């Protein structure tokens, strides 16, 4: 059997020992896997599978399926043409576990990709991952709710005391059961789930928590509309949200105004005289406290929820980060990267990993050539590893040539989802790079015996968005490294042993 997966927006095929030979296996992107799980759980009640071309276009242009039913987001699955040619495709998660089958496929194409359209059914009743086991199918959740109104809340961050007061007040006004549906999105979804379970003690008895893998499909309005449909599928009759939303299967309730009063209690604003109201925390103030590692005030969040806030956004000096050096061969990237690693080992407590371009090509990226496609694969693989190092609080120092802006942007996006990122352009002039060339690579490229050589026979797209530009023909290694460390220090990512 052939297993296919989109990696770095390119198709990659790997062989397995599976017995079937007539049904290809496809590993969707993470956002598409979330859609698969919601389809299997009955959380997209208007759909039985992935949309065809007519329905997808109707949703994009009119916010409705072709039959007129309101639906906010096209739920589609892109695949290579080779996969779309089959009438039945097995879907697996990123660990290779069978998840579902798409059957009776009617493939279609947009400008760039083939798509599968057809019903989706589960291939196993097991719910192997912990967060999935915490989410029963939608019909089971609905059956377990008591009669009467159900107030749905879809948090994407831990619930502070003000938000908890809003939920309590709205639920009390409606006489409703509370249904919390935390989004399983972002770099640490388990942290939001823990924070939401911690909030149960602060909410009315019978409050239910059902984590849902709602990912972003477009702008914020579309995502909110989809969340309303999902909340209704799990049994919500009302939703705490923006009342301007239209064509949703729930009654939308604006969050009631609350105020912090005497004793630091959050109450309906009408119960707190204007002269007794105390200020809360703005978003900027909250981020400043988290970035500095300052404990959140008790009036803002309960202790268990404050702990999860700190896990969700660690202080800057403990947060993982990546420094990506980019520049021509011979510019001095590897030398600077090695020197920076040594300096960080002296200054900082984080584990530091060096991903040098040449070393990576002999290991992680062995077998790749120097075509534009392979160059992109090389950089994006480095970016994936760097993001994982960053996610776990380490420091990744990367030194590939990284000639294409799109690949550098991809690395930046991946890393910033989980931590901090800095791009350093080692802008040593080409003639100096050639003068330093001990291997004779530039000479061979000039002679035509070394094709696809960056700066001679292959392009280098100079970054216009670098956080720091260094010319090693005009400064020593120690001076250049000092500038990088100064940048990291100015951003609060690195503190010396004495100041930490």
Task: Explain what this protein looks like in three dimensions.
The protein is of the alpha/beta class and 500 residues long. It has three domains: 2-128, Sulfate adenylyltransferase (Roll); 132-312, HUPs (Rossmann fold), CATH 3.40.50.620; 316-490, Rossmann fold (3-Layer(aba) Sandwich), CATH 3.40.50.300. It has helices at 30-40, 53-62, 81-84, 130-133, 138-144, 161-174, 189-199, 220-233, 283-292, 303-312, 333-347, 357-362, 372-391, 405-416, 430-436, 441-447, 477-490; strands at 2-7, 10-15, 25-27, 49-50, 77-79, 89-92, 98-102, 108-109, 114-116, 118-122, 150-153, 177-180, 208-209, 238-240, 251-253, 258-260, 266-268, 321-326, 352-356, 395-399, 420-426, 468-470. The strands form five sheets. It has a seven-stranded mixed sheet, covered by helices on one side. It has a five-stranded parallel sheet with strand order 13-12-11-14-15, sandwiched between helices. A five-stranded parallel sheet has the order 19-20-18-21-22, with helices on both faces. Strand 1 (2-7) and strand 2 form a beta hairpin. Helix 7 runs antiparallel to helix 10, helix 11 (333-347) crosses helix 17 (477-490) and helix 13 packs parallel to helix 14 (405-416). The longest helix is centred in the C-terminal third of the chain and has 20 residues, at 372-391. The chain is flat and about 80 Å long. The termini are far apart. Residues 1-21 have low confidence and may be disordered.
Brief overview:
The chain has helices at residues 30-40, 53-62, 81-84, 130-133, 138-144, 161-174, 189-199, 220-233, 283-292, 303-312, 333-347, 357-362, 372-391, 405-416, 430-436, 441-447, 477-490, and strands at residues 2-7, 10-15, 25-27, 49-50, 77-79, 89-92, 98-102, 108-109, 114-116, 118-122, 150-153, 177-180, 208-209, 238-240, 251-253, 258-260, 266-268, 321-326, 352-356, 395-399, 420-426, 468-470. With 500 residues, it is an alpha/beta fold. It catalyses: adenosine 5'-phosphosulfate + ATP = 3'-phosphoadenylyl sulfate + ADP + H(+).
């Amino acid at each position: 059997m052939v297993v296919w997966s989109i990696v770095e927006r390119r198709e990659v095929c790997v062989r397995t020992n599976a017995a079937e030979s007539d049904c290809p296996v496809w590993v969707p992107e993470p956002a598409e896997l979330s859609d698969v799980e919601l389809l299997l759980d009955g959380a997209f009640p208007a759909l039985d599978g992935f949309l065809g071309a007519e329905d997808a276009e109707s949703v994009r242009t009119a916010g409705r399926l072709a039959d007129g039913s309101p639906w906010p987001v096209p739920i589609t699955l892109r695949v290579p043409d080779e996969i779309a040619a089959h009438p039945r495709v097995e879907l697996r998660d990123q660990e290779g576990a069978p998840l579902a089958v798409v059957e009776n496929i009617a493939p279609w194409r947009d400008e760039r990709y083939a798509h599968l359209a057809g019903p989706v059914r589960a291939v196993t009743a097991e719910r192997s991952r912990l967060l999935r086991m915490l989410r029963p199918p939608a019909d089971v959740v609905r059956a377990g709710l008591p009669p009467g109104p159900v107030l749905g809340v879809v948090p994407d961050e831990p619930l502070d005391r003000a938000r908890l007061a809003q939920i309590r007040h709205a639920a009390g006004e409606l006489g409703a059961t509370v249904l919390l549906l935390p989004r399983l999105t972002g770099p640490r979804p388990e942290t939001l789930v823990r924070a939401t379970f911690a909030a149960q003690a602060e909410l009315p008895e019978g409050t239910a928590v059902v984590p849902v893998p709602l990912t972003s499909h477009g702008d914020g309005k579309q995502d909110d509309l989809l969340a309303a449909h999902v909340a209704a599928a799990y049994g919500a009759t009302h939703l705490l949200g923006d009342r301007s939303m239209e064509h949703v299967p729930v009654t939308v309730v604006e969050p009631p105004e609350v105020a912090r009063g005497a004793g630091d209690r959050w109450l309906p604003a009408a119960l707190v005289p204007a002269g007794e109201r105390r200020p809360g925390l703005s978003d900027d103030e909250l981020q400043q406290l988290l970035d500095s590692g300052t404990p959140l005030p008790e009036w803002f969040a309960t202790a268990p929820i404050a702990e999860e806030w700190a896990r969700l956004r660690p202080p800057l000096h403990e947060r993982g980060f990546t420094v990506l050096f980019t520049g021509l061969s011979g510019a001095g990237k590897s030398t600077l990267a090695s020197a920076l690693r040594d300096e960080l080992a002296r200054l900082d407590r984080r584990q530091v990993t060096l991903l040098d371009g040449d070393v990576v090509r002999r290991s992680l990226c062995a077998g790749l050539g120097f075509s534009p496609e392979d160059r992109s694969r090389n950089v994006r693989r480095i970016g994936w590893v760097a993001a994982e190092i960053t996610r776990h609080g380490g420091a990744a120092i990367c030194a590939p040539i990284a000639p294409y802006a799109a690949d550098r942007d991809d690395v930046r996006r991946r890393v910033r989802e989980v931590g901090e990122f800095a791009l350093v352009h080692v802008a040593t002039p080409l003639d100096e790079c050639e003068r330093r060339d001990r291997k004779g690579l530039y000479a061979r490229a000039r002679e035509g015996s070394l094709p696809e050589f960056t700066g001679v026979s292959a392009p280098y797209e100079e970054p216009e968005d670098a956080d720091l530009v260094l010319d090693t023909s005009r400064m020593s290694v120690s001076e250049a490294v000092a500038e990088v460390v100064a940048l990291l220090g100015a951003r609060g990512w690195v503190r010396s042993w004495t100041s930490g």
